[in-house]
Design brief:
The complex is a heterodimer of chains A (282) and B (255). With 282 residues, chain A is mainly alpha-helical. Chain A has helices spanning 3-28, 36-52, 57-79, 84-104, 123-147, 149-159, 161-166, 171-197, 207-220, 225-241, 249-263, 267-280, and strands at residues 114-115, 199-200. Chain A has one domain: ABC transporter involved in vitamin B12 uptake, BtuC (Orthogonal Bundle), CATH 1.10.3470. In chain A, strands 1-2 form a two-stranded antiparallel sheet. In chain A, helix 1 (3-28) runs parallel beside helix 5 and helix 2 (36-52) crosses helix 8. The longest helix of chain A is centred in the middle third of the chain and has 27 residues, at 171-197. Chain B has 255 residues and is of the alpha/beta class. In chain B, the strands form 2 sheets. Chain B has a 6-stranded mixed β-sheet with strand order 6-7-8-3-9-10, sandwiched between helices. Chain B has a 4-stranded antiparallel β-sheet with strand order 2-1-4-5, with helices on one face. Chain B is globular, with a radius of gyration of 19 Å. The N and C termini of chain B lie far apart (43 Å). In chain B, 45% of the residues are buried. The mean pLDDT of chain B is 90. Classes of the chains: A mainly alpha (282), B alpha/beta (255). Chain A binds chain B through residues 144-145, 147-150, 152-153, 155-156, 158-160, 162-171, 173-174, 177, and chain B through 51, 53, 72-75, 77-78, 83, 85, 89-94, 98, 101-103, 105-106, 108-113, 115-119, 121, 160, 163-164.
Chain lengths: 282, 255
């Protein structure tokens, strides 16, 4: 594999972790987020600062995840007070707040961003494999959560909060857990992105990115791990293969979000499920 | 008599309207009490005050001597309340069996991180199927609630509440929407749960025939006020109750 292919694998891997991290919050627990890029960015900046402090790359990943998860917990606390539609606005606000803060901070490089001081030292292939392994672990974790009693309780929270309370589920606690886990994973993805790109600027974590992540989740099928995995691979590679799409990203992803939500709310996963019995019949 | 449930001078206010006015009553361990009254009497409001779905303006609710005031609904459920709602609210994304399984897994879902490290559902599945059989809807176990008639969903509500293994079962019109044979069967099941398993039950029901058949004590509400309490025959003979149900003084109505 050439350097370009390796970078594609790496980027797809990072996006898989990122999309599945949002799927934990939005797909499993039913909490919409239009500002997921803020947590991705938090992890990325934390990782860059750790690298500039001379600490190893793995420490950066861990700190990135922890910091993003902590910020996610705070945002989650705020989300407990708002209803579904307002949660979309709140999380979108968090996304813009993140950009606003980062752009103005000298230690964070302002508009110019940050450069990492030390690389991962794994080489292109090593890093691609490392990211792929983490992405595979995230897929496994998603599937595991879905089967666990935590996932079962998430289903209830996503379905009907009042009824969830009637079967003894502490809705607030479960929502916070979803936020903390999902945003921490996004932070890890951010840390990987910092290492992948070598330099980070605020725009890499803007609204378009939040919408892109949400599009991956929605197009794949909200809550379906394999659906989101498939959609992430396609939506990551598409703009790279067809360069012109890159200029119309917001239009494309916004349009996709609208079309899928309006006409195929189950996403790819649902379409495949429906297609399967049809294929069996002669 | 030790009271399992004690409702002490509970008042509920809706936008200036007093939906419940200093209502008090107690339910002893092992009782099957009917909470009755005409439409709008405040029965469901009273139940919602007990489960914590709404906050009373004043008054207290005690379960086995423990003050529930201020506790959120899920905490009250964990202390032993089980509610079957008047308006059915199944989890629509789950099968009928899964609805009941989740409730049966009460011990597993207490804390998210403990829930994360457990994924065995076999024991809860068996319990769910047993309860579905008990309320007579085991055939619907694998079905989704969206495809099912109200009569099945009402019994699903009851099965889900039972799966919590509550100390006190609150049933809000469990028989509504059932045909007379189904209603009779479910009323028998409820009576058996009380008589054989010793489950304490508060039953709100409009089907007076079944109430009078099953309950040994009634509490009557009208316009948010408790107007009578006692043995079914005595309560139904009470002039105040007759006025509440018939809308006017029965002697005048007869004249």
């Amino acid at each position: 594999m050439g350097a370009y292919e390796l970078s594609l694998v790496t980027l797809v891997g990072i996006n898989v972790i990122l999309a599945l991290s949002l799927n934990l919050i939005t797909g499993f627990c039913g909490q919409i987020s239009l500002g997921h890029a803020a947590f991705y960015g938090t992890g990325a900046y934390a990782c860059a600062l750790i690298s500039q402090a001379g600490l190893p790359f793995y420490a950066g990943l861990a700190v990135g995840g922890l910091v993003a998860g902590a910020v996610g917990l705070v945002v989650g606390l705020a989300s407990l007070r708002v209803r579904h539609d307002f949660l979309a606005i709140t999380t979108m606000g968090v996304g813009f707040l993140f950009l606003g803060i980062v752009r103005q901070q000298e230690p964070l490089g302002g508009e110019i961003g940050l450069t990492i001081a030390a690389g991962h030292g794994l080489g292109g292939l090593g890093f691609a494999l490392f990211v792929a392994a983490l992405a595979a672990a995230t897929v496994w974790f998603s599937l595991y959560v879905k089967r666990s009693w935590m996932g079962f309780s998430f289903d209830a929270v996503a379905d009907d909060e009042d009824t969830a309370r009637l079967v003894g589920i502490d809705v607030a606690r479960y929502k916070l857990t979803a936020f903390a886990l999902g945003t921490a994973l996004a932070g890890v993805a951010g840390g990987l992105y910092t290492q992948y790109s070598g330099i980070i600027v605020p725009d890499a974590f803007g609204f378009v990115v939040s919408i892109t992540i949400l599009a991956m989740v929605v197009v794949g099928g909200i809550g379906s791990t394999f659906g989101v995995l498939g959609a992430t691979v396609v939506l990551t590679l598409l703009p790279l293969v067809f360069q012109f799409i890159d200029d119309y990203k917001l239009l494309l992803y916004g349009g996709l979000l609208f079309i899928v939500m309006r006409f195929f709310p189950g996403g790819l996963a649902e379409l495949l499920r429906r297609a399967r019995p049809a294929r069996r019949s002669p | 008599m030790t009271a399992l449930l004690e409702v002490r001078e509970v008042s509920v206010q809706f936008d200036g309207v007093r939906a419940l006015d200093t209502v008090s009553f107690a339910v002893a361990e092992g009782e099957l009490v009917g909470l009755i009254g005409p439409n709008g009497a405040g029965k469901t409001t009273c139940l919602r005050a007990i489960t914590g779905a709404l906050r009373p303006a004043s008054g207290r609710v005690l379960l086995d001597g423990r003050d529930l005031t201020g506790l959120p609904p899920h905490a009250r459920v964990r202390l032993g309340l089980g509610l079957s709602q008047q308006l059915v609210r199944p989890f629509r994304s789950m099968t009928v069996a899964e609805n009941v399984m989740l409730a049966a897994g009460l011990a597993r879902t207490a804390r998210p991180l403990r829930a994360l490290v457990q994924n065995d559902r076999g024991c809860e599945r068996a319990r769910a199927l047993e309860l579905l059989r008990r309320v007579g809807i085991e055939d619907a176990a694998a079905a989704r609630p969206a495809t099912l008639p109200l009569g099945v969903l009402k019994r699903l509500e009851v099965a889900r509440a039972l799966a919590l293994a509550p100390r006190l079962l609150l049933l809000d019109e469990p028989l509504a929407g059932l045909n007379s044979a189904e209603a009779r069967a479910l009323a028998d099941t409820i009576a058996a749960l009380n008589a054989d398993d010793g489950l304490t039950v508060v039953l709100i029901e409009h089907n007076l025939a079944e109430v009078l058949r099953s309950c040994r004590r009634l509490v009557v509400l009208d316009n948010g006020v408790r107007i009578a309490e006692g043995a079914p025959q005595a309560v139904m003979a009470d002039p105040a109750v007759r006025v509440a149900y018939l809308g006017e003084d029965p002697d005048h109505a007869a004249a």
